Amino acid sequence: MVAEAGVPLSAAFWPACIGVSELAEDLEFKPRTDLAERVSRIIQEKVADVEKPGKHGGRTVRAEPACIKADQPGFDRQLTLNLSVKRQRIKLEGRDWNVVVAGGVPRGMA
Q: Looking at the DSSP assignment, which residues form a beta bridge with residue 62?
């Protein structure tokens, strides 16, 4: 007989940390804690919808700077997602457009 067991991806990490930076005109990244809070709140709601209450104690999604720090317990299980945004105004065919380019990179668990 062969036994198989699967481990869901969500079991690999507990808390998640969301950080957002905006590329400014001077090409410097500026932290956007307001956006990080909005994104983390939405993700927390989605996580709560997917996970059954009490399962794994519930995952926590935090916005920087409220995330677990490198010198704190649990940092090694934290998944961090760094998002970046760039807003720009362009003129196309005589019309003004506001363009937002967004991207993200997960920072793996330590």
A: 17
Going from N- to C-terminal start, the domains of the chain cover 14-107
CB neighbourhood size of 36 (10 A): 24
Q: 91 to each of 23, 94, 95, 101, how far by Cα in Å?
A: 20, 6, 5, 16
Contact between 45 and 75 under an 8 Å Cβ cutoff? The reply is: no
1 burial type by CB count under 10 A (0-12 exposed, 13-18 middle, 19+ buried): exposed
Q: What is the pLDDT along the chain (110 residues), one digit of tens a residue?
A: 666 655 555 555 578 999 999 988 777 889 999 999 999 999 999 888 877 665 555 789 999 999 999 999 988 889 899 998 888 888 989 999 988 888 877 775 44
